[in-house]
Amino acid sequence: MSTEAPQGPGFGIDIGGSGIKGAPVDLVAGEFTHDRLRIPTPQPSTPAAVADVVAEIVGEFGAASGKLPVGVTFPAVIQHGVARTAANVDSSWIGTDVDALFTEQLGRPVHVINDADAAGVAEARFGAARGTHGTVFVATLGTGIGSALLIDGQLVPNTELGHLEIDGHDAEKRAAASVKDNEGLSYPEWAKRVYRYLTVLENLIWPDLFIVGGGVSKKAEKWVPLLDIRTPVLVATLQNNAGIVGAAAAAAEGIQH
Q: Could you tell me if residue 125 is inside a domain?
């Protein structure tokens, strides 16, 4: 697989713990062709309830969604279409064939991908890593730390490297953006923890590029320059659009997971 973006239209849906968002995507530019639609995630967020919302979102776009393959992000390890974990959604998802559920509900091909992996694909095709060969590591810093690893544009799925044990701690328990807020850390104090996390990754995988994303990247000037490491660090460019765009691209490319 190349690092070039797929051609043509696509449709992406991003499932989160609080909201489900979707839009048709121009897979040449990596941009929405219509304003996205957001519907609150049903509570409880069971498979049947979420599948109904996904169908509602696709249906709302009518002809704009055509019969395009639909890419869907999901906050879980997705192995051959099956959810192996469940983060911020109902535990009944564990063991569910999410691909099959959504494919049956929509009556068209559906491709489900881990949410951090989708962000990584989006950055590789349209964002900060576009045209970059070699090893790229994308870290989404939020409530936890999501990770995506790409080698020459090829996704290595479900890496879950936000859970590395570093200095006796789960990395995301020390360096996630939520920890900064919960512990009242200054940007320089928190940057030291992110620095430590990235240096461990440097020595494990020797990446050519780090990309950091998540809401905290909007204040990148306050902490990214403090990451004095050997690997270049760039800020993710697609922000809140990354999930939808990456899911649509993954579906169009048929990325295996």
A: no
